[in-house]
Structures are given as C-alpha cells and as structure tokens.
C-alpha cells in the first residue's frame, strides 16, 4: 500500500481534527464531584499545618459516625484561601458545587447568599436543636435577614496582644502589666522604642487591617465598632478620626520591613525577642507552642488594650450549596461539624476553640482555656479582617485603603478611603 | 489499494484543501480561546457585572470612565510606565554592552554567554521568591539581602527601602526583571553582530573610518532591526508584568500596583466588569506597541 504525501497530509490533518474534537468532548463530559452517591466532597483551603491536622481529625470523626459515606478531600491550597475561592466561584457558576465548602462565618457569605448559591439552614438548626448548642451571640452574628446559612466549626479570637516579657523588662516595664487604654499602651510602646527594640511588630497589608480593626474596637467600643458595619456609626465622624490617629501612632512604632513579612514572621519577632508586642489572632498561639514556649513565662497574651471583655471573633463554617451533588452526605458532614465530638477533635488539633458549648475542653491548652472562658462571658463582635463583619468586596476596599496608608501615611486620605468603601458596599 | 497514475498538480480543492484542513484546528482554537475570549471580555467590560452574579445590563463606557477617574488606577498606570522604562533601558543597555564585550573577543565567551543566559531559564515566580528576600527593605541591624550586603561592605548609605518606596518603588521590581532578561537581549545582539559580514568592517576600515565611525555608520544601522525586536519583546513582557510582583510584594501592596495586579484583585473579589475593563485597557496598551511592529514586518516581508 502506497500513500502519496498529500494523502498522508490529509490523513494527519483529519486525525488532528478528530483528537481535537475528542479532547473538547471529553472535557465537557467530566465535571469533577459527581460520581458515587456515597462521596462527600468537602471543599476547603486547609491543605497544610495545623489546619490540615484539624481537618484530618474531623474526617476521622466523620468516618466513624458515617461509615456509609466516603469523604473526598476537595482542598485547594494557596493564597490563604483566595485561590480556593476563585476555583469555588467558577464551580458554583457552572452548577458544579461540592457537597459542602468552607467559608468564614458571617458577612463573607453575603455574595453566595445573594446569588442563591447556598441553602438557608435555620430549619435544620431548629430540627436538630443546634440553637441550644451554640451561644446566642454567635447565632445572632451568623444570621443574615433572619436566616442562618452555615455551621461554624471553630472559633478564633482576633483581638489578642502577644508580648515578650524579657523585652519588656529590659525596657523598664512591668511584664505583668495590663493596659486599660490604648494611650497607656502607646506610652509603654514608646519606652520600648527608646530601649532600641521594635515596640510593635506587624506584617503585610492584611495584618495591618487586623491591627486597625482592633484599634477601632478599642476606641469606638463594641457597640460603635459593630455600628460601622450596619451604618449606625459614621466612618467620616470624629470618633473614627481619633481612632485612625491612634492607628497612625501605632504604625509609627512598628517595624519598617512590614511589607516583606507575613504574620508568622511578625510573631517570630516577638518570640525571638526583637519586638515587644504583636497583635494577631489566637492562631499565633500555635507558633509559640511549637517552639516550646510557656504562657506566662516566655510569652504573655492579653486582649488588645481597651478591648478587655470583648471577644472579636471569627469562625470557619460549612455550608450547604444549592443543588449539591449529595444532600444527605452534606447533612451528615454538617452533623459531624456541629457535634461535640467533631468540634473537640478538630479544635484540639487546630488550636482554636469549639463553637459548640457542649464540647469537652478539659484537655485543651492553657491559652485555649482562657479563650473558652472569654468566649462564654465576653461580649462578641465580628472580625473585619477575617470575613465575619463585612463582605469580601468591602474588605478588599478597606485593605486597599490601609495598604495605601502604609505607604503614604496620610490619615485624612485613609479616612476618606474607608468611608468611600463603606458607602460603596453598605447595603 | 494503490493509485496507478500519480496525481497531477490540479487546481481546486486538492491544492487548498489539505493546507486548509491542517490549519483549521489552529484557527478554531485561536478563534475560540483567543479572539472569542477577547470578545467576551470586551462584552463583560461594558456590563454592570460588579458581583459574582449575572449582569443586569449594559452601562456603556461607565466602567472605563470610572477607571480613569480612580487615583489608584492612574497610579498603577504611572507605575507601569516607570517599570517598562526601567526594564527596557536596563536590558537594552546592559544587553548591548555584554554583547559588545563578547563580540570584541572577551575570553571565555561561551562561559559568559551561558552564565548570562541562565537566569532566563528561571521562571519569574521562582526568582521572585529569592528577590523578595534580596530586596528586603529592613535597614540597619535587621537588614537582610542587598541592604545587608551594602551594610557589611561599608556602603550603608546605599541602603534603601526598595519596592516599598512610594514614588520609585516599582523600579526596584524591574531589577530582577533586568537580571533575568539581559542575557536574552545580549544573545539577540550577539546574533546581530555575528550576522554582519566581516567584509563590511574591512571595507569601512579601508575607507579610513575610525572605530567609532565604524560602529556609528556601519554596525549600528545593521543592528537596528535587532534593537527593535528586543524592544518589542521586552516591552510587551513588561506591560504584562504580574508574576514577579505577586511573588515579591503580593497583590495588595500599594507601591507596586500595576494594571495586571489590580485586574487580579478585582477578579478575586468578583467585580468582573471592572476586571474586564482593566484587561481591555491592558490589551490596548500592548496593541499600541505590537500592532505597528506587526504591520511593519508584514510590509517588509511583502517587499521581498
């Protein structure tokens, strides 16, 4: 059999076309998830470290409680969750939702709710008696227009100061001292500055938003701070101006290389004795613990001055997507997440505290014990930097304004940016 | 089966059929994934799709006017110009210099050629991770990277905040870019030098041209097409800069905002319309650079 070059070319071209169409066809056929009805795909950005350990512990409980279901890990790593959120957005738009996905509880869910992408869970809360499992203040903060859309798995506290007592002693300060107001604290910070150490360590933009949030909370009080998100506190008012002045003063007392650092680096400055204080959420505890530091001797932890008795909370939670591939599986997962056993296992490994009041926490760490106590007694407010207080879009605008301030130091333009962000995003 | 009579060249589908068949897949793929998506992007940029939900309607040029009245966007355009300028001048000047030195017969040419070319093999995101450390902006006791080097060499006055400087920070980002692509430009120029026949130089020398005149009137004119290509290649890479900034400064850092990073931030928050508008502006900027070049090349080839 002889083939002329031209025929050969034609055959090759046709073959090329065929593979191309085959490839296209194959692509639209497979759509992720799907498959076995026993599969429960859980979409998270917990891919490493203590978060991964927590997820593993939770999965173990889930598999014990539901031998019929098969856990499928849908974790997408990278970008502190932002990569996962982009992937999730495109999956939800193409109607290919996972059985359940992780989201910060609170306002971060707004976009999904408005698009009708997640189911309301209030009936489920009622039916399963979850309303009694979680503290009332939290349930209030989970609600949007009277409906709850997710099940919280863990609670973190954002308004915590971490301090190095040795540095404080060197600067002539009492390491045991607590500070009633920001002004007292700033006076102490200036002493540390005079002693030649970094008074307050901070890292890249989102940690600056985190710091700003605690300063606003300290100066406006819990009510005024919560009012920022529902419009009852004026962003362009004099109270906010004062708080921003305090924030500017604090930023003057921070390390200059903040843009090059992420939160573990900033916390490490305190651990290593280069900096006196660091404001970070209580996941920083894991950094101290993993380096064999003891609370009370090697490091101190106390609420940000001016926010004593207030618990600035953030929570991870799980949702039920509309048209999910496996509603029974989703329900089973949410059951495990809400259960005392699930919360104990997950939070012990992750270093956070259970949202469920019935979870046994006797063998949790020292810091966690204090956080659990505050969680039960303190006034609860929602964190901005971690998606509880404001929508993703709003937080993006706030972060941009704070990042700009970090480079130009202009308080007036910071306040302008913040009020513009509020105006644009307040519904 | 076999054909008895070999096919004669004939007019008709046998001449244009197979070639057409061959390029059809490419045309389809390009049509859908490049031009189709450019169209879709343009379409989105005229809509009011500011959330993850579907668009409600068209708003004309509103997204564009909003962009150009946004100080941060203007700032990021300014950054882009500064960055491109630094990147272009840096690679062209250094690349030419190295090519010239090698062309003059520096010792160990092949070694230097390899050494200068190697950085190009590294991806921007990987080198960015290293440069993030090199360009750390801490000064004094806590300095690391280049600032530490300056300090230990007694050149402490050279320490600077690098990319966190509000006015010229973006130029620090051009530093790793120059480091990576100068070798490539050098290779282009070296090829240009090698393409000039020895006879031309000899003729110039015989005519009594000094060394400078030889370069000015004989060699440079021959190198100008190379310089143009290098400008276009580096220029369009520079306008699309994204990965380097993401690796060194992150997406939210103010001093290193460029349109591409802003586009990413807007996309991530779900403001698809604004993100698409930024993408279109970016495409237009690149087109301004590329299209005249393509037209010129096309004309040149037709003349041949």
UniProtKB/TrEMBL annotation, chain A:
Residues 1-22 form the signal peptide. Keywords: Signal, Transport. One of its GO terms (cellular component) is cell envelope. Coiled coil: none annotated. It is found in: Cell envelope. Pfam families: SBP_bac_1. It comes from the Bacteria. Part of a binding-protein-dependent transport system for a sugar. PANTHER family: ARABINOSE-BINDING PROTEIN-RELATED, BINDING PROTEIN COMPONENT OF ABC SUGAR TRANSPORTER-RELATED. Belongs to the bacterial solute-binding protein 1 family. This is Probable sugar-binding periplasmic protein. The lineage of its organism: Bacteria, Bacillati, Actinomycetota, Actinomycetes, Propionibacteriales.
UniProtKB/TrEMBL annotation, chain B:
The keyword NAD does not apply. Pfam families: BPD_transp_1 (PF00528). PROSITE patterns: ABC_TM1. Keywords: Cell membrane, Membrane, Transmembrane, Transmembrane helix, Transport. One of its GO terms (biological process) is transmembrane transport. InterPro entries: ABC_transporter_permease, MetI-like, MetI-like_sf. It comes from the Bacteria. The chain crosses the membrane at residues 20-38, 80-102, 114-134, 168-193, 214-234, 276-296. One of its GO terms (cellular component) is plasma membrane. It is found in: Cell membrane. The keyword Membrane applies. Residues 77-295 form the ABC transmembrane type-1 domain. Its main location: membrane. It is a multi-pass membrane protein. Belongs to the binding-protein-dependent transport system permease family. This is Sugar ABC transporter permease. It comes from Nocardioides iriomotensis. The lineage of its organism: Bacteria, Bacillati, Actinomycetota, Actinomycetes, Propionibacteriales.
